[in-house]
């Protein structure tokens, strides 16, 4: 078969198909649309060959002519008919397309109605089954109750009958042996009285013992540490009341179905009141491919807008759609609001694209709610304090130096201070998480965001993620107290490295000295760590130690007498013995210290310090004297010392070298 015959047959076939499909009742609109597209695709596939034959037929140079006069006429006639038939198909397609769209919408509605009817039927069946099960359970319960009542009545009747028989028998025996019974009763009464008196004395002693144990338990009870997961769950609700979140997408929606699919997306965005950006591109377009990653990033960072990609090479429907939209250059961007095209941008101009997206987006995803007080912070003051200490422990571990850590904490105090000074102003109650200063000083460190959340801030997702604290949460009475506590603990600026002559020895850990009790050798750091782990995980052992110290006030002195190093430490530092006795006899305070990362970091210092340089020890500074200090003040001092000593490490081997700086 010649090429001329092949194309002639295809044109005849397409022409006949178009004539048949033009009849309204021949098939559904969707079926007619599909058949028209198939015939057009067949003509499109032969277009290049037809164009070549037409050019050969139009050749005027005799040396280049490939057809004779008759054949040239036929080819030119075929080319004209080819264009006419294709034009007929395009017109027919344009006429049928609205009917096909309406038919597709009706079909979707019918299928949706069928699904809803099926779901409703299932719900009715489930409700009927539930009611039947409830009726069955109620019937069984009533039957069981009736059976139990009958059994109880029968049992009571049997007991009454037995009681009457026994009473009659007892009466008869009493009448025949009254004398012996009186004697036995008198003897038994005397014995019972003696036993009762003895049992009462035993019970009295047992009650006294229980009361003592209960009092001891109350004194030595270790309050459980707050559950971090539970605390995070409570804190997650601390934010200003916010309106319902807008619909979000967060990625580019790629169209392959042409006009129908694009219209559906535009309707989806209209229902959400959102901006739609359409990127018209081609796979062979270099600028299109270069701006593609930036376009996808915009879709991720602005999820409240719908970003659409139409690659005209992805499908014939997309190519036809681009022609209908009169897109003549790539890339081209169209901006739609309420299905109305508001603006166009031609070219891969990233800056202008971002500006136009910002200009036409009707939704501001970062706007904060300003009305109402919002939800209060449900955490208690103690729970807030525990969460802050936990977050600061993580923050200190993740910072590279003490300077960085102090900078992070001072940044945290700045945000909290702004909230306390301006609780009613939105700009002071919110922090952009991608703010460069916030990230550099606090947000990039592990524990930084957690510290903000511990004070009552809450993460708010959007184009720009934020930390927000509600007006009600900003009024939590724990905020000023925790701020003052941190301000006491954190120095105004990182301390400089002291000279050797001005260095005060680190605070000696009183519990490290217990290694010498009873003639045992002094503890090394590993033994001290093991002892702390034991006490932290065994409250009973902690209570027993406290009971020993209370029952034997001279126990610490006895330990010092059997340990020359401990005696030397007490001689150089008289205040240390008193502080050791107070902490050792208070298991609740000691348990809190053992479970606190800051306080615990101090508790290994004395082990290494006792081995060298104890003669150079000096009394603790007056501001850390335990007498008269509140629990918050002692905790602030423990935090400050753990910060300034970077974990409580001791001095050099001779006891006169300055401690290493972080």
Structure description:
By secondary structure, the chain is mainly alpha-helical. 63% of the residues lie in helices and 6% in strands. A five-stranded mixed sheet has the order 1-3-2-4-5, sandwiched between helices. Helix 2 runs antiparallel to helix 3, helix 15 packs across helix 24 and helix 16 packs across helix 17. The longest helix has 108 residues. It is elongated, with a radius of gyration of 44 Å.
The number of strands is 8
Instruction: Catalogue the unreliable spans.
Output: 222-244, 365-371, 494-523, 604-627, 645-662
The whole-number mean of residue pLDDT values reads 77
The computed structural class is mainly alpha
Distance between the termini: 89 Å
Bulk shape: elongated
Helix content: 55-70%
Largest sheet: 5 strands, mixed
Q: Tell me the β content.
A: 5-15%
Which strand order does the major sheet show? 1-3-2-4-5
Radius of gyration: 44 Å
Quaternary state of the chains = single chain
If helices are DSSP runs of H or I spanning 4 or more residues, what is the number of helices? 24
